[in-house]
Specification:
The chain has one domain (about 1-255): Metallo-beta-lactamase, Chain A (4-Layer Sandwich). Helix content is about 35%, strand content about 25%. The protein contains 9 helices and 14 strands. The chain has helices at about 35-45, 55-60, 65-70, 150-160, 175-185, 190-205, 215-220, 230-235, 240-255; strands at about 1-10, 10-20, 25-30, 45-50, 75-80, 90, 95-100, 105-110, 120, 130-135, 140, 140-145, 170, 215. Strands 1-2-3-4-5-6 form a 6-stranded mixed β-sheet, covered by helices on one side. Strands 7-8-9-10-13-14 form a 6-stranded mixed β-sheet. Helix 5 (about 175-185) runs antiparallel to helix 6. The radius of gyration is 18 Å and the shape is globular. The N and C termini lie far apart (about 35 Å). The structure holds zinc ion (ZN) and fe (iii) ion.
């Protein structure tokens, strides 16, 4: 399975998965259809699946046009997103599995950003590593805003993702890394891995490179929303109870001018 990252709209990433053996493709969170169609054209591949993580417009905006062009493609999304996803055919819950290109993905229920949000985790297979598509849940250096969920729910979602192997590649749906790291440094000043990451990320952005994918290991070392139970973050929040620490830093991020 090859993964192509398409940068669209202001800061969205859409991911096209391609199986060269069957020349089929799947797309994760098509914000818009045109760049996906262009990529499919270039690959001369048939679209067989759309994997949506949640109902926001910048994740489903391309569904209808893609289904018009590829009527046999199946649209997958969370069961709680019923009626919010155009052309949804498969209603997934945590623990379900989907497959594409000879790989199997576990579905995680990860509410917080929305109440129905799911993520897709392709476990390592043969010589290929694990791949996580997590929409607006976990970001490089941050996490999604809590539009429909509580800090406690988001913490539980992050806890699920934190259990994945460190070398899992994390394909998040936005390029928010620099502003996330800027905030992270305000709550985790002495974290040298975070300081180094900021320097690396700034250089990458200056070269016009994407900072996505990241890895679970890097997030565990540098993302405050994966580090709510470390001494440094607890000290900075002035709190000790995990959900309260998480709520405090999420609230600080909401009000961070950046
Ligand atoms: Zn969203
Ligand atoms: Fe989004």
């Amino acid at each position: 399975m090859n993964i192509y990252r398409l940068a669209v709209l202001n800061d969205n990433y859409v991911f096209v998965l391609h199986d060269p053996e069957t020349n089929t493709a799947a797309v994760v969170d098509p914000a818009i259809a045109e760049p996906v169609l262009a990529k499919l054209d270039e690959l001369d591949a048939e679209l067989v699946a759309i994997f949506n993580t949640h109902h926001h417009g910048d994740h489903i905006g391309g569904n209808s046009v893609l289904i018009k062009k590829f009527p046999k493609a199946i649209v997958y999304a969370g069961e709680k997103d019923r009626d919010r996803i155009p052309h949804q055919q498969v209603f997934l819950k945590g623990g379900d599995q989907v497959s594409f290109g000879g790989r199997t993905a576990d579905v995680f229920f990860v509410p917080g950003h929305t109440y129905a949000h799911i993520a897709y985790y392709f476990a390592p297979a043969d010589d290929q590593g694990g791949e996580l598509f997590c929409g607006d849940t976990l970001f490089a250096g941050g996490c999604g805003r809590l539009f429909e969920g509580t800090p406690t729910e988001m913490l539980a979602s992050m806890e699920q993702l934190r259990r994945l192997p460190d070398d899992t590649r994390v394909w998040c749906a936005h390029e928010y890394t620099l502003s996330n790291l800027k905030f992270a440094l305000t709550v985790d000043q002495d974290n040298t891995a975070l300081q180094e990451r900021m320097i690396t990320a700034q250089a990458m952005r200056q070269r016009g490179e994407a900072t996505v994918p990241t890895t679970i290991g890097l997030e565990k070392r540098t993302n405050p929303f994966m580090r709510w139970d470390t001494a440094a973050i607890k000290r900075s929040a002035g709190l000790d109870i995990p959900d309260r620490v998480f709520a405090r830093i999420r609230g600080q991020k909401d009000n961070f001018a950046g």
